[in-house]
Amino acid sequence: MTFCNALTRAPDDQTIADHDSRLATRVLNWAASHGRKDLPWQQRINPYRVWVAEIMLQQTRVESVIPYFERFMERFPEVADLALAPLDTVLAHWAGLGYYARARNLHKAAGLIMSAGGFPDTLESLGKLPGIGRSTAGAILSVAFGKRSAILDGNVKRVLTRFHGIEGSPDDSRTQRELWRLSDGHTPARRCREYTQAIMDLGATICTRHNPDCKACPLASDCVAFIQQRTGELPSPRQRKKMPVRSCYMLLLKNAGGRCYLVKRPPAGIWGGLWALPEFRSRQDALDWCEDSGAVILRWWPS
Questions:
Q1: Does the active-site annotation cover 54?
Q2: pLDDT tens, 182-215?
Q3: Closest CA relative to residue 145, chosen from 132, 127, 126
Q4: What are φ and ψ of residue 87, in 5° steps?
């Protein structure tokens, strides 16, 4: 892993502090005029709403999350409502948002929060809740509690990687350690809530993965990727894992009244805890199940 010229030698602490302060100031000034301020989770801020929003926003675009967040808050306005609701009800309000483990973890964590008597407000205690990693915990502390805490979601990784010209995949452990160091250094002691939202906003709306709007970026004058015309190269692409191919047989069963037969999937794995069509590893397994159940197969698709 190599870094841009500015990072090939460690500058003195005062230089780092001055540089980091300038970045935060520019990001905050940009957000004052151009940052998003009307997102639903930016209204009536409290730890519960920030937490739910941060979980929903993981690997999901803001535009997709907004209607789900609003419906979720209408049905589960407080953490107690979420904790006391049946998991099936929670999953039903999550259906279509994907990555259903997030919903299961939300439900489980809500129960733990209620048992503890309140929402945790330290990095360590938040990190013990299922589904909350270091960056999510930092966002909750910063946005909901106003405590200085660094974050490193996908948007912030992209901004810092380009700004500092960092080589290597952001998912690499060594690169992540460096990005965390930089993120912590850039996070100001004051106005940390505004800064956290601003740096995420900058990555989401300006420093986008494809075709970033560098001319509108407040950091462009010192951005290594922009200066070296490498915004298309940085961050370095991650090594994609070869996806396993899996095949199965599913039965679409209807009774005389036209109602469809569903089974509940195991709590873990793909679509965990959701209701789905019966699934089998082979055609023979499906035939055996139908014979035992008295069901009649009318046709196979594809035939």
A1: yes
A2: 999 999 999 999 999 999 999 999 999 999 999 9
A3: 126
A4: -60, -35
